[in-house]
Structure formats: C-alpha cells, structure tokens
Amino acid sequence: MRSTFSLGALALLLSGSALVPAMADSSRAATGHEAVALAAPAPEAQEPSTKVAIREADALPNPEDSLIKQAPPAPIAPLPKPAPRVVHTAKGQASWYGPGFYGNRTASGEVLRPGTLTAAHRTLPFGTKVMVTNLWNGRSTVVRINDRGPFHGNRVIDLAHGAAHTLGLTASGVAQVRLDVLR
Fold first, then answer.
1. What is the pLDDT of residue 180?
2. 66-117 pLDDT, tens per residue?
C-alpha cells in the first residue's frame, strides 16, 4: 500500500522551519517572537519551501503510471473481397431433387443432405460456384456443383432441395432460370 503525505506536511518536513522544534517541545509555552512565528509564518520563509516541495514531488515517479494500460490500437478493417466475376451465362429450365435422394452419394462422393445449396450440372467441374436466378420471381442464390445431371429434357441444372426452396420453385417443380458461372 502506498502512503501519501499532504503537500503541506511534505513542505514542513522538507523545509526544516522553526515550527517543528516549537511543536516538538510542547512543555514550553510560546511567547513573544515565537508566538508570532507560530501564528503567522513569514511568507518569504514558506514560499521557497513550497516551491521546492512541488518540484521534488513532480520529480518523483508515480508507480501507478506504469500500471495504466493504453487502449489497444483500433483493428484494421480487412479489404473488401472483390465481387465474383461472371465467367459464363446461360438460360434454361431448372428442376429440383431432394427427399427421395437424401443419404445417397452424389457424383462427387458427398452425401446429399437436406437444406444444402448444391446442384447437378452436366459439364461444369465439381466445386464450381453458380449464381442461379429464378426469372419468374427474381430470387437468386449461389450454389456449388457437386453432382451430374439433369438427365431429363432440356433442363440446364438440377437443384438440391435447399436451393430450390430458396428460389421458390419447389411447388412448381421447374422454373426458367439464368445461370451465372462465377470465378
């Protein structure tokens, strides 16, 4: 624990003024010039000691200063990712598949699970990201190609149930879509 002195007490200790002996000898009564010195010390005698005490107090290091921690610097915001670039665009009809195929393996070896945003395409490489836009209602989502198909008619993509639900084509079964292959 740190002990503290008031500025006045510190000034008295450092100045060595005549008040200290008079206070120490309490059996002797103050008379004459001593009583005047006790009642009102001369301003010249007290002024220099106060200045010295202030200078010495300022010179002493404060141990609590080292305990004050500075706020960490503000984090640097990461640069925004560039917008995905469209490499190829196609239009056609999309269909969806789902509940009857859950648990089966896709052509890429993944297990088909409910709610996935994946799709089947005849030629695009596995892992390709494609933005699919339903032209009937304007909804769009990004899917990942992980299967082969569709093998029916002129359809261009076969969506997993999660993607079809997002696009709003589960009730109709098929919809006109635009495919934007992303890089």
1. 96
2. 556 677 778 888 888 787 789 999 999 999 998 899 999 999 999 999 999 9
Whether residue 33 is found in the same domain as residue 111 = no
- Distance in angstroms (rounded) separating the CA atoms of residues 31 and 18: 14
Return d(Cα 87, Cα 53) in angstroms, integer. Answer: 78
Q: Which two tokens stand for residue 18?
A: 């005549």
Enter the pTM of the model.
Answer: 0.55
Q: How far apart are CA 163 and CA 141, in angstroms?
A: 7
Distance CA 126, CA 69 (A): 52
Residue 1: what pLDDT? 47
The long-range contacts involving 152-156, CB below 8 angstroms and separated by at least 24 positions, are 152/95, 153/93, 154/92, 154/93, 155/92, 155/93, 155/94, 155/95, 156/90, 156/91, 156/92, 156/93, 156/94, 156/121
Residue 28 within any structural domain of the chain: yes
- Convert the pLDDT of each residue in 38-54 to its tens digit: 555 555 545 554 555 55
SS3 for 57? Answer: helix
> Are the C-beta atoms of 46 and 11 separated by less than 8 Å?
yes
Same domain, yes or no, for 160 and 95?
Answer: yes
